[in-house]
Design the sequence.
């Protein structure tokens, strides 16, 4: 399956305040170099906490103790929230707690080469290997930081950073995704994660393509983020992002057709952030005025991926607002396809999937209909429409309008 690809466009100097009468205080001559010193004050200065400047080893610093490792009792609910398999003994609460405890002790000891010596990325050899599995540590770190309250956050990021340093793909991708969400993908503290993702994205006959679509997607999203942060200083950033997304789509499509690994068998390829690529691609098309291409991309997000944001953004493209906003408006059937029924269906699905803007738009529509006295096929009265509007506002987390 290939995403739509349109044609390319190119010391105090003064002593502490004295309690002596003013006439007994020492007068500093105006010509003295001390005259420019800070004025004397009886107010005690509070020490200002200086924030450390991020650097490459920020996440490698040990800012935790073994006592910070969560007990086994806290892991089970977090595993359920992440829908982790209960029969996987490698990520059972006891396994996670034990692995994190051993990891914390090793990190605190700081022995030279402890990462390569004590950690293993191979699950298959676990039975005969006393090393700590990166697989277990990775899921433990994810469980610690993906559900509030964050538990042992410094330990979790230390684990993910270690995984990135060792080219453990899940940890590298997760840490890079965190960097993107914080707007810090190019920050020095994420250098190791960024390098690992770039290596995952390369086409290498000796490496598996399993993580390449997600790695390429992250690199594409990073191009867009950098472009936004630099206020469009790099006109080629969108083109590079599109190429990353297209390559990811081609790899994924090849795997679906069973031609991904040369011997006719389907290649195992994951694309966890497929929806992110589709949405980003559609937004680039819209910036360039390619609405038809944007609609095509968003339809993939809606009908193949069932993504809530894609539902909302496609609804916006299929809608031409009419004066007063009392109805959805006319559709450009020949240009974009989709009628009033599809528009409303898309908007409602987005709203019930917690897209607040969609819920507010539906509330606004019902209020406009109520104010205009518009009767629809549903036969609702003006007050009933206001009640319905309040239900949509409630979904958006807004205050009701009907008392």
Sequence:
């Amino acid at each position: 399956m290939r995403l739509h690809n349109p044609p390319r466009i190119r010391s105090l100097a003064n002593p502490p305040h004295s309690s002596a009468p003013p006439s007994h205080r020492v007068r500093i001559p105006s010509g003295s170099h001390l005259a420019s010193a800070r004025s004397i004050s009886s107010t005690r200065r509070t020490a200002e906490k200086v924030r450390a400047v991020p650097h490459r080893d920020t996440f490698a610093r040990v800012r935790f103790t073994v006592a910070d490792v969560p007990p086994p009792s806290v892991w089970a609910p977090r595993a359920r929230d992440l829908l982790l398999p209960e029969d996987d003994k490698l990520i059972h609460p006891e396994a996670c707690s034990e692995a994190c405890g051993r990891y914390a002790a090793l990190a605190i000891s700081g022995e030279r080469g402890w990462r390569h010596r004590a950690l293993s990325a191979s699950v298959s050899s676990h039975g005969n290997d006393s090393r700590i599995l990166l697989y277990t540590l990775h899921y433990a770190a994810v469980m610690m930081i993906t559900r509030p309250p964050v538990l042992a956050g410094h330990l979790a990021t230390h684990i993910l950073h270690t995984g990135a340093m060792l080219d453990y793909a899940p940890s590298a991708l997760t840490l890079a995704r965190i960097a993107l969400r914080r707007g810090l993908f190019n920050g020095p503290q994420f250098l190791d994660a960024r390098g690992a993702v770039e290596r995952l994205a390369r086409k290498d006959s000796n490496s598996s393509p399993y993580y390449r679509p997600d790695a390429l997607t992250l690199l594409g999203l990073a191009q867009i983020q950098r472009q936004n942060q630099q206020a469009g200083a790099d006109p080629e950033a969108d083109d590079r992002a599109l190429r990353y997304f297209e390559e990811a789509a081609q790899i994924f499509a090849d795997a679906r057709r069973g031609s991904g690994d040369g011997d006719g068998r389907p290649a195992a390829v994951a694309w966890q952030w497929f929806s992110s690529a589709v949405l980003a691609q559609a937004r680039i098309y819209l910036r360039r005025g390619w609405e038809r291409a944007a609609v095509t991309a968003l339809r993939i997000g809606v009908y193949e991926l069932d993504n809530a944001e894609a539902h909302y953004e496609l609804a916006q493209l299929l809608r031409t607002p009419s004066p007063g906003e009392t109805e959805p408006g006319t559709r450009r059937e020949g240009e974009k396809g989709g009628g009033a029924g599809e528009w409303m269906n898309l908007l409602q699905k987005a709203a019930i999937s917690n897209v607040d803007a969609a819920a507010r738009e539906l509330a606004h529509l019902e209020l406009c209909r109520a104010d205009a006295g518009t009767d629809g096929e549903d036969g609702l009265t003006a007050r009933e429409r206001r009640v319905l509007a309040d239900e949509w506002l409630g979904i958006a987390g807004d205050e009701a309008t009907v008392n």
